[in-house]
Each structure stands twice: as structure tokens, then as C-alpha cells.
């Protein structure tokens, strides 16, 4: 196989009503057989990402995917292939049918942050970390944000200030990322972005915070989600600005979650 050519791959994070997600093991005979992954596979000629995902879930697990939400993308070079991975989320109401392993693979439900199976495909570590980020948070820009729902992973994140402990998750402007990464683990730093350049800088952070206070912020975020899908979760920070424009359905457009500003 020519490993220089970028191969388009779709993979689905499928949820059950308990908020658990599905992992399956790679069948014998494939590269990385026995490793755990999200169900999916290569996009075939003429397919959209959604139709490829629907075909793969039917072939591998016998279920029908009705809808899926674009989430994260990632490029990874294996010794056997150079892959462009497109991860989708499939909510508990977005699929139907009875799960059955059609390729003699194993499958299991997992809770975010509490993985009980190993090993995982090498490219997937940041994807699993992203699943531990809640989709609904709230708080104030100056004092920090926290999870809203008891059903989601509990997380508190604080604005950076000098002297803050390295174990704390922090947020700071994207252009400070390189400097902060010398003192804090990069997977604890969220980057605040409001331009294309910052969006690109922030692709090594744990997550992006995109504040919305004007129509231009909405327009640029829509463009970036479409033209340069992120490899890290995007949290849309909805500020209390009196902006009357209705907000797009961000989570259906590729954002990971929403942060609501409190008074
Ligand atoms: N399905 C899937 N593939 C992944 C994930 N993460 C990841 O790096 N990959 C890589 O993406 C590629 C997917 O190809 P595949 O071999 O599963 O594709 P396929 O089902 O169409 O198989 P085929 O080779 O029989 O046509 C592999 O190189 C695999 O290592 C993941 O979470 N799910």
C-alpha cells in the first residue's frame, strides 16, 4: 500500500441512553488487530462521510445510523497508512437496531474518563481525552467555568494567572500557549481564540474557547468549522451581550459544547 497517500476515514462515537459510548476491537487480519477503536472505516469513492459511516455501522454492527454530528478531525501517519480521520458523534436517538458483531470483533460500552479496555489505536488518545470534556458549562470569564449537569464529566477550569498550580485546568489567549506549555501540561490548557490564526495556533491545546459577542464572531466560527474542522474540541462561549441574532445550532455544526456566561 502507498502510505504517502492520505486515506479518508470516518469513525463514529456512538452513545447509549446512559451516556456511555461504544468501542469495538479490530478484527483478526487487519492492521492493529485486537486494538480498540470507534467503529468506522475508509470512505469509498462516491460516498459522503455520512453514507460511509452508515455503511460501516451496518456492515460491522448491524445497526442503522439515522444522523451523525461532525466532531473532530485528525491526521495520523501509521506504518501501514496515512489517515485523515473524521470523527462523528451519534447520539442515543440517532441510531436504531440491535448491536451484533458481524466481523467477529468484540464490542463494549465505556464511560468517559473510565476506560476499562486496552490497547487503544494510537491516534485515538486525544479523542478519548476530548470525551471527558463536558458539553454544557457555565460561569464567568474572570472567575472560571464548570460543568452544568451531574450526568456529564465534572470539570472546573480557571483563567490563567501566575502562580496557579500546574494540576489545574486553565484557559488563556491562544498566543500564550507556547509560553504556558513550558509550565503546565498542554492537555490542561484551553486556548481562547477569535481569529483564524489563533484557531490554527490552538490546535495543540486541550480545547478551544470561542467567545461570541458579535455577528462577526458567529460568521468566522461558522466558516472555520466548515473550512478547517478542528482537531481539538471547540467550546462556544455565549456572552451576555444583548446580541439579538439567533445563534446557530453549534453542536450540530461541529462544536463540542457551549459555555453560558452567568450574570
Ligand atoms: N475505524 C477506525 N479507524 C481508525 C480509528 N482510529 C484510527 O487511527 N483509525 C485508522 O483508520 C484506518 C481505518 O481503516 P480500516 O482498515 O478500519 O478500514 P475498513 O474498515 O474500510 O477496512 P478495509 O481495509 O477492510 O477496507 C486504519 O488505518 C485505522 O488504524 C478509529 O477510531 N476507528
UniProtKB/TrEMBL annotation:
<dbReference type="InterPro" id="IPR020084">
    <property type="entry name" value="NUDIX_hydrolase_CS"/>
</dbReference>
<keyword id="KW-0460">Magnesium</keyword>
<dbReference type="GO" id="GO:0044715">
    <property type="term" value="F:8-oxo-dGDP phosphatase activity"/>
</dbReference>
<dbReference type="GO" id="GO:0035539">
    <property type="term" value="F:8-oxo-7,8-dihydrodeoxyguanosine triphosphate pyrophosphatase activity"/>
</dbReference>
<protein>
    <recommendedName>
        <fullName>8-oxo-dGTP diphosphatase</fullName>
        <ecNumber>3.6.1.55</ecNumber>
    </recommendedName>
</protein>
<feature type="domain" description="Nudix hydrolase">
    <location>
        <begin position="5"/>
        <end position="135"/>
    </location>
</feature>
<dbReference type="GO" id="GO:0006260">
    <property type="term" value="P:DNA replication"/>
</dbReference>
<dbReference type="Pfam" id="PF00293">
    <property type="entry name" value="NUDIX"/>
</dbReference>
<keyword id="KW-0235">DNA replication</keyword>
<dbReference type="GO" id="GO:0046872">
    <property type="term" value="F:metal ion binding"/>
</dbReference>
<keyword id="KW-0227">DNA damage</keyword>
<dbReference type="InterPro" id="IPR000086">
    <property type="entry name" value="NUDIX_hydrolase_dom"/>
</dbReference>
<dbReference type="GO" id="GO:0044716">
    <property type="term" value="F:8-oxo-GDP phosphatase activity"/>
</dbReference>
<keyword id="KW-0234">DNA repair</keyword>
<dbReference type="GO" id="GO:0008413">
    <property type="term" value="F:8-oxo-7,8-dihydroguanosine triphosphate pyrophosphatase activity"/>
</dbReference>
<dbReference type="GO" id="GO:0006281">
    <property type="term" value="P:DNA repair"/>
</dbReference>
<dbReference type="InterPro" id="IPR015797">
    <property type="entry name" value="NUDIX_hydrolase-like_dom_sf"/>
</dbReference>
<keyword id="KW-0479">Metal-binding</keyword>
<keyword id="KW-0378">Hydrolase</keyword>
<comment type="similarity">
    <text>Belongs to the Nudix hydrolase family.</text>
</comment>
<dbReference type="InterPro" id="IPR047127">
    <property type="entry name" value="MutT-like"/>
</dbReference>
<keyword id="KW-0515">Mutator protein</keyword>
Amino acid at each position: 500500500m502507498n502510505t504517502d497517500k492520505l486515506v479518508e476515514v470516518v469513525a463514529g462515537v456512538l452513545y447509549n441512553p446512559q451516556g456511555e459510548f461504544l468501542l469495538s476491537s479490530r478484527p483478526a487480519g487487519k492492521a492493529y488487530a485486537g486494538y480498540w477503536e470507534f467503529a468506522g472505516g475508509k470512505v469509498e469513492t462516491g460516498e459522503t462521510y455520512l453514507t460511509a459511516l452508515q455503511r460501516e455501522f451496518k456492515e460491522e454492527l448491524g445497526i442503522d445510523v439515522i444522523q451523525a454530528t461532525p466532531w473532530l478531525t485528525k491526521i495520523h501517519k501509521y506504518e501501514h497508512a496515512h489517515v485523515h480521520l473524521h470523527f462523528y458523534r451519534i447520539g442515543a436517538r440517532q441510531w436504531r437496531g440491535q448491536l451484533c458483531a458481524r466481523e467477529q470483533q468484540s464490542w463494549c460500552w465505556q464511560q468517559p474518563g473510565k476506560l476499562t479496555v486496552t490497547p487503544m489505536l494510537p491516534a485515538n488518545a486525544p479523542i478519548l481525552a476530548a470525551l471527558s470534556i463536558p458539553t454544557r458549562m457555565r460561569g464567568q470569564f474572570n472567575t472560571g467555568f464548570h460543568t452544568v449537569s451531574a450526568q456529564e464529566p465534572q470539570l472546573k477550569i480557571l483563567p490563567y494567572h501566575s502562580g496557579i498550580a500546574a494540576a489545574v485546568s486553565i484557559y488563556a489567549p491562544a498566543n500564550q500557549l507556547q509560553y504556558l506549555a513550558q509550565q503546565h501540561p498542554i492537555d490542561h490548557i484551553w486556548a481562547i481564540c477569535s481569529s483564524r490564526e489563533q484557531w490554527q495556533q490552538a490546535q495543540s491545546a486541550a480545547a478551544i474557547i470561542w467567545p461570541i459577542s458579535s455577528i462577526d464572531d458567529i460568521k468566522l466560527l461558522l466558516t472555520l468549522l466548515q473550512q478547517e474542522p478542528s482537531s481539538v474540541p471547540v467550546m462556544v462561549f455565549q456572552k451576555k451581550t444583548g446580541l439579538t441574532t439567533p445563534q446557530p445550532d453549534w453542536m450540530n455544526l461541529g462544536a463540542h459544547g457551549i459555555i453560558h456566561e452567568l450574570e
